[in-house]
Amino acid sequence: MAKRKRTGRAPAAKGRRIYELEVGLLSGFITEAFAKANSVVARTILIRGDQTLEQLHDAIFEAYDRFDGHMYEFQVGGERTHDPKARRYVLSGMADEMLDDTEAAGTVTDTTLDDLGLKKGDSFAYWFDFGDDWWHQINVLAIREEAGSGKYPRITARVGESPPQYPDLEDDEDDDEEEGEE
Fold first, then answer.
1. Which CATH number covers residue 137?
2. Least trusted range by pLDDT, from 23-27, 69-73, 166-170
3. In this model, does residue 99 exceed pLDDT 80?
4. Minimal CA–CA distance to 99: which of 68, 120, 124, 71?
5. Structure pTM?
6. Where in the sequence is the domain holding 146, given as residue range(s)?
7. How many domains does the chain fold into?
8. Which residues of 154-178 are buried (b: 16+ CB within 10 A; e: fewer)?
């Protein structure tokens, strides 16, 4: 039997962990002007281990100032977006009606952060709005083995502006025309 390293404290009970996650925007329906002005767009979120992926979605939705709900899923364990090896966590109604031949690993309403078996340094994907394809990479920055006080999930940092959920493409065309005139 392997020896266990003693840390002086017992492992935290399920739900007694706090995950510090960096949610970075990889791609989506953004204008060229927005991309030029915001090379990095990321949010840091703290969430308890006993909270669900649905609650994480709600926090990301708020952190990115979105207002119109759409379908979404989380992909864990893949090396890229749409990786067939990734475990997919989907909306409750989608588990039986997957868009391709893959099978859902679980639903966002029933799967907690602790259920994912994450470690510091891991990353996974969040895909919002299957038409506009907002892809995010979620990096596990830290896992604290104790529950903090206050409300979770909570947004603790914002880098870059939130892209408009539905950009005004005419503004981007006007910018292109102005650049061509100069």
1. 3.10.290.30
2. 166-170
3. no
4. 71
5. 0.83
6. 18-181
7. 1
8. eeeeeeeeebebebeeeebeeeeee
Return the HEC string of the chain: CCCCCCCCCCCCCCCCCEEEEEEEEEECCCCHHHHHHCCCCEEEEEEECCCEHHHHHHHHHHHCCCCCCCCEEEEECCCCCCCCCCEEEECHHHCCCCCCCCCCCEECCCCECHHHCCCCCCEEEEEECCCCCEEEEEEEEEEECCCCCCCCCEEEEEECCCCCCCCCHHHHHHHHHHHHHC
Gyration radius of the chain over CA positions: 19
Give the pLDDT band (50/70/90) at residue 13. Answer: low
Q: Specify if 160 maps to a domain.
A: yes
Instruction: Report if residue 7 sits inside a domain.
Output: no
pLDDT at residue 118 greater than cutoff 70 = yes
- Residue owning tokens 């969430």: 47
The residue written with tokens 């990889």 in the block is 26
Is 109 within a domain? Answer: yes
8 domain-assigned: no
Using an 8 Å Cβ cutoff, are 133 and 12 in contact? Answer: no
Lowest mean pLDDT among 2-16, 57-71, 111-125: 2-16
Per-residue pLDDT at 168: 81
